[in-house]
């Protein structure tokens, strides 16, 4: 049954459903015209009002999830393209809210509050974007760039003029990097303490007064830039908390709106079913049987369409908070648009899982390399090397998974070219080119086998 349903498009399913219902209800066409007009009015209300409200509510929830997801990705990786994605999702969410406002059964106050909370979230995010741009979207921009330049200048000047203080400078850079990687006020205090000791050591050095003054000025520049960077991180943290609070205010309202829309759909459907049953009681026993058959068929058809959508909504909702391993079950090569959408959702979940694993392994690799460089003993170097090997093994495993996916796609391309070969006489050369490209890609994957 699932296999047959997946081979039908949504329009074909609806067409079959209407065809069956039409055939069934041909036996009761003698019903009064007023009853027919009442039934049509009920269905029109269900689709144009109740259905529209449910559709707009679902669109609002979906856009909110995407908007928050893009904002979270920007906080993890400040890509300059992500703010535009956040604003685009906010615009789409606003459009969905405007569409909901046009439904006459919606409380206007709810719509106004949704719009104001969405704008508040966007304003909070814009403030975070501004703060990040001041800090620097990469290590060479903004406050990060100024801090990095002062750190390198201090390090080079100490190495050239006071080699005896290189150990203190290395300790200073290590605590600085600990703060940049992990955060925490403890590392800030450590940096400030080392800066104080380094200043005293420069004052007590045998250098000339002019050299000591220049080195002390470099230390002050370093401390000032580091303090500015710390303050900017604190500001970003405060703004992020404010944005999260705005999101926490809008999310329950969106969920309540969707729940109300679903409940209204259920109530309206139940009322319509009840009215249909009451009308059917006035008809002959064959009319009753026909009505029951039509209801059962409609429920089955609705279940086949709605269930995958519900599973996709649950998976997308989990994707905003976690990295689930479950996927929506879909048959191979479906023609159903919803099943095709489920494949895209599964692909999105796979991409997020792959990115998460790669990012974690890359961070482990970076920390291990850092620890290996600053290791003071053989034991520490061994531990860093072990951590580095484990991180590289994780990245290799991720590459194996990606290689398997590419191999499967190559096989699908070859199968598709084999099916098309001979069917389209005017495109034989294109089909052959597709097949050769797939074979070449498969051969390259074998050459680049990470195993």
TrEMBL record:
<dbReference type="GO" id="GO:0007165">
    <property type="term" value="P:signal transduction"/>
</dbReference>
<dbReference type="InterPro" id="IPR032255">
    <property type="entry name" value="HBM"/>
</dbReference>
<keyword id="KW-0808">Transferase</keyword>
<dbReference type="GO" id="GO:0016020">
    <property type="term" value="C:membrane"/>
</dbReference>
<keyword id="KW-1133">Transmembrane helix</keyword>
<feature type="domain" description="HAMP">
    <location>
        <begin position="303"/>
        <end position="357"/>
    </location>
</feature>
<protein>
    <submittedName>
        <fullName>Histidine kinase HAMP region domain protein</fullName>
    </submittedName>
</protein>
<keyword id="KW-0812">Transmembrane</keyword>
<dbReference type="GO" id="GO:0016301">
    <property type="term" value="F:kinase activity"/>
</dbReference>
<feature type="transmembrane region" description="Helical">
    <location>
        <begin position="282"/>
        <end position="303"/>
    </location>
</feature>
<feature type="transmembrane region" description="Helical">
    <location>
        <begin position="12"/>
        <end position="30"/>
    </location>
</feature>
<dbReference type="InterPro" id="IPR003660">
    <property type="entry name" value="HAMP_dom"/>
</dbReference>
<keyword id="KW-0418">Kinase</keyword>
<keyword id="KW-0472">Membrane</keyword>
């Amino acid at each position: 049954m699932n296999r047959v349903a997946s081979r039908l498009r949504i329009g074909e399913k609806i067409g079959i459903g209407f065809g069956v219902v039409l055939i069934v209800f041909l036996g009761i066409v003698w019903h009064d015209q007023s009853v027919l007009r009442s039934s049509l009015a009920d269905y029109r209300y269900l689709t144009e009002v109740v259905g529209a409200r449910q559709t707009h509510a679902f669109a609002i929830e979906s856009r909110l999830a995407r908007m928050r997801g893009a904002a979270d990705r920007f906080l993890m990786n400040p890509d300059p393209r992500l703010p535009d994605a956040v604003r685009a999702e906010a615009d789409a969410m606003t459009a969905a809210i405007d569409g909901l406002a046009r439904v006459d059964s919606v409380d206007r106050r709810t719509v106004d509050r949704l719009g104001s909370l969405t704008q508040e979230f966007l304003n909070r995010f814009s403030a975070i974007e501004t703060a990040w741009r001041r800090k620097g979207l990469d290590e060479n921009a903004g406050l990060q760039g100024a801090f990095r330049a002062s750190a390198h200048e201090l390090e080079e000047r100490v190495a050239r003029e006071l080699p005896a203080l290189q150990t203190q400078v290395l300790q200073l850079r290590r605590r600085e990097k600990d703060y940049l990687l992990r955060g925490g006020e403890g590392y800030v205090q450590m940096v400030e303490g080392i800066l104080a000791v380094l200043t005293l050591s420069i004052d007590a050095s045998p250098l000339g007064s002019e050299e000591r003054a220049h080195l002390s000025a470099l230390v002050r520049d370093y401390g000032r830039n580091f303090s500015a960077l710390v303050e900017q991180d604190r500001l970003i943290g405060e703004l992020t908390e404010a944005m999260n609070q705005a999101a926490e205010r809008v999310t329950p309202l969106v969920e309540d709106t969707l729940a109300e829309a679903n409940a209204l759909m259920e109530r309206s459907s139940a009322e319509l079913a009840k009215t249909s049953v009451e009308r059917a009681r006035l008809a002959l026993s064959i009319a009753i049987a026909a009505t029951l058959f039509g209801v059962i068929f409609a429920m089955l058809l609705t279940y086949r369409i709605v269930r995958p959508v519900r599973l996709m909504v649950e998976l997308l909702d989990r994707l905003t908070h976690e990295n689930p391993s479950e996927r929506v079950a879909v048959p191979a090569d479906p023609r159903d648009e919803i099943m095709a959408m489920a494949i895209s959702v599964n692909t999105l979940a796979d991409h997020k899982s792959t990115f998460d694993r790669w990012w974690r392994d890359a961070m482990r690799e970076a920390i291990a390399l850092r620890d290996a460089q600053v290791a003071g003993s053989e034991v520490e170097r061994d531990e860093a090397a072990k951590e580095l090997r484990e991180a590289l093994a994780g990245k290799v495993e991720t590459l194996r998974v990606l290689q398997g996916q590419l191999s499967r796609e190559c096989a699908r391309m070859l199968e598709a070219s084999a099916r098309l070969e001979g069917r389209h006489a005017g495109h034989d050369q294109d089909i052959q080119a597709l097949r050769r490209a797939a074979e070449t890609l498969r051969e390259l994957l074998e050459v680049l086998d990470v195993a």
